[in-house]
Every structure is written in C-alpha cells, then in structure tokens.
TrEMBL record, chain A:
Domain F420-non-reducing hydrogenase iron-sulfur subunit D as annotated: residue spans: 9-131
InterPro entries per the UniProt record, alphabetical: MvhD/FlpD
Organism: candidate division WOR-3 bacterium
Species lineage: Bacteria, Bacteria division WOR-3
Name of protein: Hydrogenase iron-sulfur subunit
Key words, A-Z: Iron, Iron-sulfur, Metal-binding, Oxidoreductase
MF terms in GO: iron-sulfur cluster binding; metal ion binding; oxidoreductase activity
TrEMBL record, chain B:
PROSITE patterns: 4FE4S_FER_1, 4FE4S_FER_2
Domain 4Fe-4S ferredoxin-type: 301-329
Pfam families: Fer4
InterPro entries cross-referenced by the UniProt entry: 4Fe4S_Fe-S-bd, 4Fe4S_Fe_S_CS, Helical_ferredxn
Signal peptide: none
This protein's UniProt keywords: Iron, Iron-sulfur, Metal-binding
Gene3D superfamilies in UniProt: Alpha-helical ferredoxin
UniProt keyword Repeat present: no
Keyword Transferase: no
Organism listed in the record: candidate division WOR-3 bacterium
Any GO MF annotation of the entry: iron-sulfur cluster binding
Protein name per the record: 4Fe-4S ferredoxin
Amino acid sequence: MNEKFEPKILGFFCNWCTSAAADLAGTSRIQYPANIRPIRVWCSGTVDPAYIIKGLLEGADAVVIGGCHPGDCHYINGNYKTRRRVKIIKTIFKTLGLGDERIFLKWISASEGVKFAKTMNDITEEIRKLGPNELGKKWNV
Amino acid sequence: MECVGGKMKIIKKGDIIQSARYFVNGLFEKGFIDGLVGTVLYNNNSYITFFTDKKFVDTFNPFFPSFQVSTAQEIKRITKTKKSERKFGVILRPCELNAFVELVKFKQIEKENILVIGIDCFGAYDNKRLKDIKEPFSKFIEDIKNDNEEDLRRTCSTCLNPVPNINADIVLGYLGLDGDGVILIPQSEAGNEIIKSFEGEDGKEEKREEVIKKIIERRRKKWEEVKERTIKEVHGIDNLLNFFKDCITCHNCKDLCPICFCKECFWESPVFEYKPENFFLWGEKKGGTKMPLDTIFFHVGRLTHMSHSCVGCGLCEDACPRDIELQRLFYAVGEKTREIFSYQPGRDYNEPPPLTTFKEEELRELG
C-alpha cells in the first residue's frame, strides 16, 4: 500500500520458548524484520491486557504475544490463560472497532527459529498491507 | 420459579411492607438471624443498614425504590477478613445477588453463616427524579400495578432480571400479588426450613409467572434496541472518543462497581505517575496529548478486567458526575465477552469466572 510505511510491531515473547526461538533465529543467521520490537517476559501469561491496549493506543502498528505451545508452558498453564485474555481483548477491540486484527498470539517453541522468522515476516507483511494504526495519530485517546 | 421441592408461601399481614416486616421480625424472633443487612428509612431517605436491634424493623423497607450502592459491595466489608461466627441475613436485589455470587467466587465474601434473601425488583427510581417524588413508595406500588416504568433508572427500565436468580436461600417477592402481602419462595434447604416455620397460604405460580414474563418481554425489546444502538454509537475510535468526551477519569464508576474488588487497583497505581519526559515524548509522537490522560485506556482496560462478570446494575453510570451512560456500553460489550465462554455472572457459585480457569481444547483459532 505505502512503500515507505515501516510498521512498528511490539512483541511480548516468553523467556522459555519464543524469546529462545528469536535467539536461535539470530544465531542461525536467519533474517527477520527489524520492525519487531521484542520484549522478553517470563511467561506469555504475564502479559497484562493493559500492555496490549497501551501499546496500540500509543501507536504500535501491531502487538504480537509469543508463548510456548499449548501443553508446553514452563509454568504449567500460563499460556492457556494468555489465550483467554487475548480472546477477550480481541473481542472488545472488535466490538469497539479499534483494530483487533492488529493483535496476534503465536505459539513458537525454542527450537523453532525458522518458524519465528517466518511468523514475524508474515505479520510484518500483513500489517504493511493493513497500513498504519490510526490510533497512533490520536493525541486525544 | 426454582424451588428445592419446598413450598412457596404467601404471607398476608397487611400491605407488602407490613408483611415483609412481619417476616423479618419472625426471622429475628425465631433465632434464624442475629443481624440483618437491609434498607431502612430515616426522614424519608433510605439507608442500607446492618442492624441487630429489632427496632429497625419498624422502618425497614427492602423494596424502597432507591439504589445508591450495591449491598453486595457492602457485605464484602463485613466478611472481608474472616467469616462471621454469628448468623446474619442479607437482603439483595437480583442484580445485587448476582454481584454477591461473583464476589463469593472471587473470595471477597465468606458466605457461611449468611442467610441470603433475594427480593423481587421492579426497579428503582432515578436518583435525580427521586427527590421530586413526594410519596415514592406509594407511587412505586402504583407504578408496578400500571407497568409504568417512566421514572425508573434508565438501567432498571432495560433490566431483564426482575426476580432473583436461583442462588438465594429465600426469595421475598411481591410480583403478581397486587400489593397484597409477600410471597416466600425457597431456593435452598435452609430456606425451605425457615419458610416452613411461618404460617401462610400456599403460593401459586401462575399469576406471578405471567407478570414476570410480561416485564421481561417488554424490557428485552427495549434492551435489544439499546444494545444495538450503543454498539453502533461507540464503533470506531472517534465515536468512542465522543462517547467519553465528558469523562474526567475520576474513577467513580470503578469505585462503585461491585465487581471491581482489587485491593490494589492497577488504575490507581504508580504506573500513571508520569514524568515530564513522557509528555514531551507524546508531543514528539502526536503533537501533544489530551488531559486528563488515559481515558480510553482506563475504560477499555476495565472492560478487559470485569466486563464478563458485569451484572449490569448500572451503578457505574449513577456514579458518573458527567452523566455518561456507562452501563449500556459495559453491559453490551460484556455480552460479547460473556458469549465467548457461555458465562453468566451470578448463575452458579461453583462456576469459575472466565479468567480464573481454562480448557485445553478451546479457542484453537487463536493457536
């Protein structure tokens, strides 16, 4: 849509899986877009919906939450709780028309460096097509 | 109505208030309770009161059409630190009963030794209008007879719960009795035993059911219309900003919400103590920032916290100094978040709130 538009994407990645996958992608020299701003959290279950809302209201073009595959959570069931929270916030964003399509939840394990890079590429492309987040320009939110 | 195989009973000791007082007096005299949380009148104003002295029964009026705070929230203050060793009763409107159940589930109320008495509720008058009504209670009885909902709170006029859910011990009802006495309906074994100890006529369901059905049908139409209008009205950031244009972020809505129970509330936390640099950063990014800050953040954030447990009582909008009709937004959005988990606040003491539990096989579309 816009050649110059480089989305800013906020990533909350769990320490044990998705962050390790990001490391693996890096050490394996697999490229992924610099559009991702990764933040390492202990568990995707620690991602308060407030982080997601604030991120998008401040103008992040997307928020990606990355965790361990279902059943693999290092805190037993944190990611199942994440999934419920993400569903709730996506539902609210959809109902209010605030852009639920900018919220992503991805399960990427520590060994999936390739998947990590591909996922981040795909998301970046998707958001590039979608265009900038209009909330980013709103001084009055 | 739901019964536990027990019999309903009609008490006719004068009008509905005299009959209700007779019942409550009986509860004290027969030793079923040592205290009661209910509404009493003083100089024609109503107060939720915890009382142990039977003299309060003379001014007791559980059906008085005024709604200031949720009784459920007040009960929380009684059993917050430990369960009561002495038995006390609580009088709860249907929406308060639903909030009560939610608070029990959130471990904010210790239910043991509490006798839960749910009441029928045709609604309460708008606080601002209540002041101008001379004889509110007599008018209320007339309004019930004539199906007149004009002076009710906006929220009450779209309320689909005029009768308590199945989680009381006893329902103290008046619908379908034409202002003549009260009906007692058992909803637990304990409630059944208590009702048995009172003299009265056997209750009949037909007329009551009919009246309730009529109220709900009428209001459902209205609520569906309000819901649809609201969702359209707030769709998109500019519309949402418009809806909240008068919000001063005072947090009154949150303070009065019976569901918001967190001791340390995120919205009152040091997270919101910004530094000058933050403001200049907003300046660089967006040219500037509206103040007070974080209005949309607060309301959308609160929706993620509690909308699935929202009982629709409307105290948020009563508390709003700027008359923002919050209930219709919160309850309408709440319907969407409740739908995800087929959750219904106040339905069952044993049904865990959505954010406290999970299923392995669900929401697979998210991953």
